[in-house]
Design goal:
This protein has 207 residues and is an alpha+beta fold. It has 6 helices and 10 strands. The strands form 3 sheets. It has a 5-stranded antiparallel β-sheet with strand order 1-2-3-5-4, covered by helices on one side. The protein is globular. The relative contact order is 0.13.
Length: 207
């Protein structure tokens, strides 16, 4: 399947590496991800972005969690086509209501599994979709593990920051959720208290 066989319906997201579109295809709805060249001050790509995503797909497919199937790609034209996962992103779910502890504990368990193999994924909540009770990681990205960029020290603050994520989705202003000039989340006493409670519960039940 090629880019020319798709009919774009709408833009559904933009990340560090590319812009994703919902599209109609001969096999139904799919996601087209077209890579961009936007400079990201806190993240460097060491090779072609499509190749990096293919490497991540091959690696993450080996784990017992859910990712969309890869349908096609073109390295020279800088795009890939993948399965569309219907459901709410975690960001959309968060805007509606605070997230349940059980969901956050599930991601902490995922972090523990990946940490054992020296892997981080991008734990930003828009990279996850809830389909019923099933959580999908819809991005193809992984990095070497780092405490600095894991879920419990980085991603969880976005999953807890309902007000900030709501304002960010409304305005596209990163200062609603990030410390200015960084890729690091805003920290408040309230977020710290909730995060610490969850980590304590997780450690008592699973560590």
């Amino acid at each position: 399947m090629t880019r020319n066989e798709l009919k774009i319906i709408k833009k559904i997201g933009k990340g560090k590496s590319g812009i994703s579109f919902l599209a109609e295809s001969p096999i139904g709805l799919v996601v087209l991800k077209e890579m961009h060249d936007e400079f990201i001050p806190y993240y460097q790509f060491n090779k072609n972005k499509v190749e990096l995503e293919l490497e991540s797909y091959d690696l993450l497919s080996k784990y017992d969690f859910h990712i969309p199937k890869l349908i096609d790609y073109d390295i020279e034209k800088d795009y890939l086509i993948k399965e569309y996962i219907e459901g709410q992103t975690v960001t959309e779910k968060l805007i509606e209501a605070p997230l349940e502890d059980d969901l956050l504990l599930k991601v902490l368990q995922l972090e523990l599994v990946l940490k054992a193999d020296n892997i981080n994924i991008d734990y930003f909540p828009s990279n996850f979709v809830m389909q019923g009770n099933t959580l999908f990681y819809i991005d193809y990205e992984h990095n070497l593990y780092s405490d600095e960029w894991n879920f419990s020290n980085w991603g969880i603050y976005y999953w807890l920051n309902r007000e900030g994520m709501t304002n960010y989705m409304r305005t596209n202003d990163l200062s609603c959720i990030n410390t200015p000039g960084t890729g690091k989340p805003l920290l408040t006493d309230r977020l710290e208290d909730v995060r610490n409670r969850l980590i304590k519960r997780f450690c008592s039940e699973f560590c």
